[in-house]
Here is the input.
Amino acid sequence: MPDSLQKTGSILLSSLLIAACGNEPDAPARGNWGGPAKVVTAAVELKPVVDEIEALGTATANESIDIQPRISSLVTRIAFDEGEIVEEGDLLVELESSETAAGLALAEATLAESESLYARSQSLASSKAISAADLEQLLARVKVDQAQVQAARARLANTSIRAPFTGRVGLRRVSPGSYVDPSTVITTLDDIGVIKLDFSIPETFLTVVSDGMAIAARSVVFPERVFEGTVASVDTRLDPVSRSVQVRATLPNNDAALKPGMFLTVDLKRDSGDVLVVPEQSIVPEGALQFVFVVNDGVAEKRPVSLGRRIPGFVVIEDGLVAGEQVVTEGTGKVRDGSQVELLKEPTSLVRSDS
Here is the structure.
């Protein structure tokens, strides 16, 4: 046989042997990168979830009014000091009352005269010296004069402005001799021994908040202090736009640390029960869908899941998994549906095997 033909036959035989070796059944699959993928898994767990919100509220005084006169007159005396605590009924301001006092004296004199005339006429009624109609007219006159006296006394009382409740007065805005009328604000009066705190909560927390519930509030003014109080009432209506409801709590404020108008935060928690959760890193997004790789007997199954809310480090699973199943948390990029996997106990082992 010529040398050229012998060389050609050797080349063809070598090619056939190489091709046959490539088709051996024991050759590793290319899609599995030469062997089972090394992964770390975590169990699907039932965890108790507590919803927590931070509500922002505004402090208001338990009772708060502007002190204003009911009549127009001159200020003759100011009987309070700015910032002091006054008791209910204490005199705050006196207004000029000489004309009003004179009017009361006149009304009382007129009443005394009419009562005397009516008394004399009653003694004449038995002898028919005065008619019953005239006697009734005199009685009506007495009642009118009595009403005039009561009105005059009320006008005189309006010249003395008194505290309607116990509280702390604010800044004085008038001076002795000032002319005031019903629109004039003389000072303010606030009962801050108890502070009302109004805040809003979403409707999902309606079952959490109830009358008498204890709350804790904080202020940036006193970062290390917690103000404890109770829920006084929950509004009967929800805001149709924000889907929130107004809540009012009361906080003791014996040291007057809290002032009306201050902002406070309230932390509220709601127990949502046990939910299925998986680590965030186990989720494999593909477009609008979400998947996880479930490992069973060393084989990975790509399974679609429905996600719920996210909590730190975990995702709530609403559908697609059951408690106790193992999902891939590290190495998801190496896994395919139906591929063999090798479980590693430590995440660091996976990092070293990739290097």
